[in-house]
Every structure is written in structure tokens, then in C-alpha cells.
Amino acid sequence: MIKRVSLLFLITGGGYGFSVWAFKFLALHADVPQLASIATVESLIQLMIGVIGFGMQTEAIRNISSFHDWQKSLDQAQQARLTLSLLFVTGAGVSVFFGHPPYLALAPLLALSADYAMYARGYPVLGAWIAFCRTLLPPLMAVAASILFPNHLLSTYLLATIVVYGATNLFISFFLKARWFYLPAWNSLSIYLKTIPLGIITLCFYFFGLGMLLFAQFFFSPEELIPAFLVLKFYLIFKGAVRVVQQAFLPQMKAEIVCIRVDKICVMMGLLFAGSVVLYPQTFISLFFGEAFAHQPSIFIWVGLASVVSSMFSSAHTRALLERRDVSFMKVGVASVVVALLTLVILEQVRSGIEIVGVSIFMGEMAFACGLAKCYFSSQQIITRVSFLSLVTSVFLIPFLFRWIGGESLLLYLLSFGLTGIILIAFTYKELASPAIDIHTDLGNN
């Protein structure tokens, strides 16, 4: 279990790590309006991916992973995705008419991506390499553009996105021996109608991330939104890492023993994030986001705490997917988004700091966790997870003591959290390394 997760993290972590550094660099050196436009593009890309996938993609993953005639399911899904993307193209034309950039025209390119089929067919390593390329190239080219031709930062980012998606789309089609293009058919959209609950769930996840910026932009200026964009981008990376863990064991997560191990890994990841930003806020923020944002740690701390809350019952999503408990999960998700948005609106009326975006994310994740615990977990399963969280949290006395005795510095941060990581691995290795059930892997083939 640890071997597979470690390999996937090594691949995706490299891309995500560079992405964090790249956006830190851009935040410190790039033109603020252009960086704000990139934030808008990122938010819209995530929105389009969520809407195009909707619940239909989740249903397709179930079918592709279990049916012998999986290519038929893939063809149906891809045709429906492309057809729906044409509505975004229409929206792009309307936006141009009103003087707005046609970012929505990227939708067909996103729709033709069948990366989800890579995971469903049991090729998580190749899927991780594809995600690595998509994460690496756009920010890499943006950094280069900020140095060589800063006036074309946004256009370079968009061009790099188009190139990397086009190339990886062709590779996926070639590898899966699937078609690379589909003719649109309006009747194919009926697939979406059958999976509305799953689609709403997908959109709920979007709002616990960059989607919050679409609402926050009505209350804050582009300059104020920059730290929110950076920390939510980092949070999106954290959620991506959690998804990597789950995708690595997708077929086995009907078993509680696998779910608890997945949740334990995710809890440790969340605590490393939260512990870093709570105990060493100046060092952590300066290291990953730049010294310019170290004076406003509150939003980073709230999002760090949200990562712990969201990780405790993270397996519920995959388990609900496999057990087809879509409607109850949808209700929990919608209620949580409402809590997050109400928190944003109410707090904006009484205070003006950008940290209210982080508080809103935290409150929404707290509502989500409580709903999942009530609907999907027995009392014993909840106690097991809470007990593990309490036990592992005690290990963070080590960086606390380092901080208390020696103050805040990069060296002490690296030493204390390096030691904490080693202890966590030693503490959990025996359990996580032992086979939970008969898990077949194709890592040797990938």
C-alpha cells in the first residue's frame, strides 16, 4: 500500500511542488492584473471540468472499471462530454459580445480528455504522469514569460494549457486504443439526466476550492484575492493528493479496512499541512507563498485546519460512489456549500479581512464532515478515526517544542517536521504496509 502511494506521490508531488513555487514566483514578480486573470482562468477551468464531468463521469468510471465492454461506456461518455462542451463555446461567443475574454472556448479541449479512464482501467501511474505534465507546463511557461515577455503572461499560460491538454489527450486515446474525437449528438446528453445527484456532488467539491473565488470576487479587489488564490491553489493540490490516495485503491474501498487506512494517510497529510502553518506560519508562508503574504497568516491557518477536517472522512466519497449512495451524499454536499457561502456573506458584513474566505472553507468542511459522519459511519468507525487523529496530533508536540525553545526559522521547521514525518511513518508503517485485502496492482506494467 505504501509503495504504491509513495510512487504516485513522487510523480504528482513533483508537479504540484513546482506549481506552488511557480505561482509564488508570479505573485512576487508578475503583473497583478495578469495574475488575477490567470486565477480567473484557473477557476473557470476547474468549473468547466466539474460541469463537463458532472455525475456522468463518475458513473462512467464505475462502468469502465467493472464492465467488460468498457470501451462502449467510454465512447458514450466522451460523446456526451464533447456535446455539453459546445454549450460553453456558445457562452464564449456571448462573453465576447459583451466584451469579456472567451475563456469558455477551452471547454471542448477539456471535454476530450479521458484521463479518468486511465484510473478506472487500473493505470494510476500513467494517470499521475499525465497530471504531472498538465500541472507543470502552464506555470513553467508563465514563469518564463514573466521574465522574457511579461506583457504576454496570460496568453502564454493559455497557449501552454492548450498544448499540454491537446498532446496528453492524444496520448490517452492512443494508449487506450480509443477514438480521439467524437461527433456531438444532443441525445447523448440524456446520460447527464440520469446522474444529476453525482453531478451536484462534483460541483460541491469545486466550491470547496477555487470555486469560492467566484463569490469572493464580489467582496474583494484583485490585489486582496491574490493570497486567497495562492492558498486555495495549495488546498486544491492537497485535495489532489487525497484523490491520488483514493484512486490508487478505488476497487478495494468497499472494505472498511481499506477505507480506514486511506483516511489515516489523509489525516497525516492534513496534519502536516495544518501543523506547518499553525506552528511556523511566517516560515511556511514565506517558503511556499512569499514573504509578501507572511503578514496575513489567518487565511492560511484556517485553510490548513480545513484540510484536517476534510481528511477525516475522505473515504466516504469513494465508498458512496462504489455503493451507489449518491442522493444522501448529494444532500450533505449541498448543505455544506450553503453553510460555506452563508458564512462568507455573513462575515463580510461584520469584518473585511480576506481571512473570511478561509473561515468559510473551514465551516463548510466542518459541516461536510459532520454530515458524512452521521450518514456513512458507525459510532465505532467515528471513534476509530477521532482516536487516531488525537494520537497523531500528540506527535506534533515535537515541532511545538522546537518552536517554543528555538523560535521560528527555516532550519528548525525542516528539522522538526522531518523528525515528525519519520516518527509518523515508523508509527504507521506496519499497519499500512500489510495487505488489507487481495489487492491486484499493475504498477509493474505502468
Write the layout of secondary structure elements.
Blueprint: H1 2-29, H2 32-66, H3 70-97, H4 107-111, H5 115-120, H6 124-148, H7 153-176, H8 190-193, H9 196-207, H10 211-216, H11 222-248, H12 256-279, H13 281-288, H14 298-311, H15 315-322, H16 326-350, H17 355-376, H18 379-395, H19 397-406, H20 410-433
Helix pairs in contact: 1-6, 1-11, 2-3, 2-7, 2-9, 2-11, 6-7, 9-16, 11-12, 11-14, 12-13, 12-14, 12-18, 12-20, 14-17, 16-17, 19-20
Q: What coarse outline follows from CA principal-axis ratios?
A: globular
Classify the secondary structure makeup into a structural class.
mainly alpha
Can you give the mean pLDDT? 80
Instruction: Bin the helical content.
Output: over 70%
Strand content: under 5%
Uncertain residue segments: 436-446
Count of separate DSSP helical elements? 20
Global Rg: 21 Å
DSSP strand tally: 0
Q: How many separate domains make up the residues? A: 2
- Summarize the main sheet: none
- What are the secondary-structure elements, in order, as H or E? HHHHHHHHHHHHHHHHHHHH
N- to C-terminal distance: 16 Å
In words, what does this structure look like?
With 446 residues, the protein is mainly alpha-helical. The protein folds into two domains: 1-194, no CATH class; 225-433, no CATH class. It has helices spanning 2-29, 32-66, 70-97, 107-111, 115-120, 124-148, 153-176, 190-193, 196-207, 211-216, 222-248, 256-279, 281-288, 298-311, 315-322, 326-350, 355-376, 379-395, 397-406, 410-433. Helix 2 packs parallel to helix 7. The chain is globular, with a radius of gyration of 21 Å. It starts with a helix and ends in a 13-residue tail after the last helix. Residues 436-446 have low confidence and may be disordered.
